[in-house]
Amino acid sequence: MILKIPLYILAQDNKLPKHQFMDNQTLKWMIKNKPKFNGGRKIKIDPLIIIKYLQRYSPQEKWFKDKILISSIHGQRHILRCIALAGILYNANLISGNINELCIVASLHDIRRKTDKEDNNHAKKAAIWVKKNNNLISEYFGYDISGRALENISTTILYHDKIKYLKTLNSSLSELIDNFKMIDALDRYRQPKIKWWLNEDYLKIKPDCFIKRIAFELVVRSEKYALIGFNNKKSVYKSIYDIL
Question: 174-188 as b/e, with b when 16 or more CB fall inside 10 Å?
Fold first, then answer.
């Protein structure tokens, strides 16, 4: 019998594989190392509102560059959690801007990855893919992403993993980038090394304590559901109902 080495152990030894999938031991390690989330507001959001964002903006599986990544730590559950966090932040009035563009960025930002490791060009590849397939995307999501919307979405995807971006960008685009950078960072609790978790030093918009707590619980619960056999979408849907 071959024993599977947990991701967090592989991360400690700098031996993480090209494709990374959550395991029970790593999930237990995450829970054991849960940060202290003190303070922050309490909110009440109808979970059905968030589920509707997920149903509308979940990407087609055939859009993923490498199908093995659909269930990896950069796959469908990560994407769905980012969409959910966008909806929660927007409906809690913690962010402003265009929620449709933000959800589309969340949906498409990682779909052209080839690996769960650094994959330096994945953002550029995703931005190019969006520009080439804007009509397909518009039809599928029921939202026109031509013109300014296309520029906003593709540029935000291009810069989503960059620490700095051009100061010449317009204010609404800068807001979209900063909002998504925060959202993407909030889902970093899935990473198998604590130093890779949320680091606010890299963010222009700092998340409230309550949203950090929600983000952590969303990761833990959805990964737990996936490990016991629920598909990616149901894992996140059930977690939303648990948390909100």
Answer: bbbbbbbbbbbbbbe
- Asked if the structure places residue 196 within a domain, the reply is yes
4-29 in b/e burial notation, b at 16+ Cβ within 10 A?
Answer: eebbbebbeeeebeebbbbbeebbeb
- Rg for the chain (alpha carbons), in Å? 17
Residue 58 belongs to domain spanning? 46-243
HSE-CB of 39 using CA atoms within 13 angstroms: 3
Smallest Cα–Cα separation from 82: which of 117, 109, 119, 52? Answer: 109
Q: Is residue 226 within 8 Å of residue 71, measured between CB atoms?
A: yes
Q: How many angstroms separate the most distant Cα atoms in the chain?
A: 57
Residue 17 lies in a domain: no
Identity (one letter) of the amino acid at 157? I
| 201, two tokens | 């030093």
**What was the pLDDT predicted at 1?**
40
Profile the chain (244 residues) by mean pLDDT over runs of 10 residues: 82 96 98 90 91 98 96 98 98 96 98 92 96 98 96 95 70 92 98 97 92 97 98 98 96
Nearest to 190 by CA among 157, 244, 232, 153: 232
pLDDT given at position 162? 81
Residue 146 lies in a domain: yes
pLDDT of residue 4: 87
